[in-house]
Amino acid sequence: MSKWLMSAAFAAALAAPAAADGGGKPPAPPKPAAGAAAAPDALPHTLAALRSRWEIKGHEKVRLPELVARLEESHGLKVVLNREQLKANGVDNPDAAEVSVSDELVGVRVSVALAQVLAQVNAAYLVRRDGIEVVPNPVSLQLARRDEPNAPDQPELLPPLVSAVIRGRTLADAVAELAEDADATVVVSPAAAAAPDTAVNARLLNVPLPVALDQLACQADLVVVRRGGTYTLTTRDHAAQLRKDETATLRHHQDLEDIRQGYRPLIAAAAEEKADQPKKKPKKKAKADE
């Protein structure tokens, strides 16, 4: 009996590990410790740094790595150079590329000043979760064109890229922040009476301004109407009326142009006929009697 009990115990001991590991399957990954905090989101800090005022002084040329170090020291802004993309777009040696820094930039928004400085080497920056990435200008322009394939090639005519973290803020406040970041004119129409107080949420990274505004507007059941260089958030009915008025104005201008085009041949023919007529000699004045 004792030998049988010992054999059964030995068999159970051998079977225990197999049961514990699920029949030969790899062990499940360890669960995170209870109460462990997730890594903090650095994006709000990055955006706050970009909205702060430029503090880097000097009238000199600095290399890109030195500029990166100064940005981190002065503004706590983590910057990464995408060297491979820069090399592929004409910056042969990104670590030796130089840009001019001027005291005239002091007090200007970091986002604006940095864009001007990087433009000297045909570069721009993109906002990332933990900082910003310096990329060639064509990469940034490609993002600006992604929702407007027929957009013009001139960079100054493309919509600016915006980034923001918006949590439970009113539509009016969120729109005002984007307008300030993009240096754009954005209006919430009085036709949308209660919409400005609507709470909105969004996490936007390198999004063309019209798309960002549309994402906020739809949360308040509004639409965005773009007229010239301005953006209007309004109700669907009001937007339809605005588009109707704009179409009528364009049609009126086209009708006027058609009228001009119709009269031009008549004006040209009259001018030609007048040119063919012989010029009359001026009559000589009779001499006064002496």
Report on this model:
By secondary structure, the protein is α/β, with parallel strands linked by helices. Among the domains are: 43-157, Phage tail protein beta-alpha-beta fold (3-Layer(bab) Sandwich), CATH 3.55.50; 161-239, Phage tail protein beta-alpha-beta fold (3-Layer(bab) Sandwich). Helix content is 43%, strand content 20%. The chain is built from 9 helices and 10 strands. The strands form 4 sheets. A 3-stranded mixed sheet has the order 2-5-4. The chain has a 3-stranded mixed sheet with strand order 7-10-9. A hairpin with a 2-residue loop joins strand 4 and strand 5 (131-136). Helix 7 runs antiparallel to helix 8 (209-217). Mean pLDDT is 80; it is low at 1-29.
Descriptive keywords:
290 residues, alpha/beta, Phage tail protein beta-alpha-beta fold, three-stranded mixed beta sheet, 9 helices, 10 strands, 20% strand, flat, disordered N terminus
